[in-house]
Amino acid sequence: MATSAAAPQKPQKHLRTESMKKQPWDAVFGVVRDSLTDFASTAGDVQGVWKLHVCMTSKSEQIDITDKARNSAEINSMNVSPREAVESILQHSSIPLLLWNLGPIERVHVVKRGLPAHSVSELADFMHITELSTRHMLGFPESTIARKIKEGKPLAQDQGERVLGMMRLIGLTEQIVFDYGDADMAKGFDAAKWLGEWIERPQPSLGMKKPSEYLDTATGLEMIETLLKRIAVGAFA
Known about the structure:
Elements: H1 26-43, H2 46-57, H3 72-78, H4 82-92, H5 95-101, H6 104-113, H7 119-127, H8 131-137, H9 142-151, H10 157-180, H11 183-187, H12 191-198, H13 218-235
């Protein structure tokens, strides 16, 4: 990851970053929990949710090692409810990291359930940028979002997708630090704050434009995601 500090030299597993500990992202926690629970219940895919749980929690030293070895037969015999599986995931993962690891179908369920408008304020707080800047970079009409926040209404689906996309970029940053960083870097690393600073830095691969100029469309978010991955590979090579 391209930061002002020297890049870590040696990868190490079982890391939890500072932003992972800042749970629960109150504005979206319930939406993510309930949409995943409903999806698992409707699709009858408790196994899929529990496997995600094993994948996510295996990144923490706090989880019992036996959880990593559970196979499909054991999952069936456990009689784990969708709600139990989802809540177990949320106990061991940050919301952004979970969203980064979700498949497209699960993400669609989250967006369609409706992200609350005040998730924009929460995103700004975690990234250490102003709410006005956050609304501007995501292409949100200021008056519309302010009214929705005041009335407690959800974002429109296209707006929710952009907020979700930003949270996934934070999750990607956490994932990169887990996969490539060392313990010292991870201990004091705040992925959301780092991303908030990085998106305002001109990038040569963008013609010296800032990543924040491309976050108001789905295509732009995908482009910045690809750029982060390329930077990570170069920094930790």
